[in-house]
Amino acid sequence: MKQVETLGRSPATITAYQNDLGQLSSFLSEKEVNKVTTADLEAFNRHLAAKGFTLKTLSRKINSIKSFFKYLHAQEKVIVDPSKAVAHPTLQAKLPRVLHADEIELLRTETKANIRLQTLVELMLQTGLRIGEISRLKLEHIRIKNLTGQLLIEEYASSAMRIVELNLAAVKAIKAFIPHRLQVSNDKGYLFNTKNGGGMIIRNIRSTVDRPFRKAGIKNATVNDLRNTFIVYQLNKGVSLEKIGQTVGHKRFSSTEKFLSMMSRSKPGRGAKLAIL
Questions:
Q1: Which fold has domain 2-74?
Q2: Which pLDDT score is estimated for 146?
Q3: What predicted TM-score, i.e. pTM, was given to this entire model?
């Protein structure tokens, strides 16, 4: 596992890698690693498919297996890499989900009574931060001066440090929320703190935002779509791909470029208020 860690992988990626190889080990039982064949690995894939794993998950597990055997081959633990001939399943490209202006207003209405949830949603809409970045955000990372501000997003795993500019809507949301943070004895300074003083964990952020989506009747939407929405609305405003990529922390230009096809799909409906300032 040290090989994965030295490549700058996130803790979640390392855990997934360990789980994938654990499943393979269980399936192969006591078979020695240098005797594993391509047929064994393909049988494992069929076993996973029969258990209902999605094509995307199967592809990720194949990546884990290929990385593992590539490492073993480099270390001369196996003579032949049996994973080389294992093919990935064909994945259909799925367009990112982007919220329309009326859906954003429904979401804002649904969160209005809970300032913590309201700020969480608004901050993600106005900055495009990742869920993990929201969970790690501390008061010391926030710089507000009058009606403008910045967020310092610290380096984490393979993501580099960056500065995110705050618009008026984000500044207002943060300033209104800070007095309502939980008052706890062991406060570690997280913006969205918990009773034990730490920050909200990622799965709790997901479930917290999922509830207003359901109550507002916004179908097939997840917390990740707040980030997608920010990106597309910035494109509609004429912000450059390079600038957007820097703001949201994309490593590759292509990660931002794929959102170009979504621009016409996210325009506000007739009479709708512009959702992103």
A1: DNA polymerase; domain 1 (1.10.150)
A2: 85
A3: 0.70
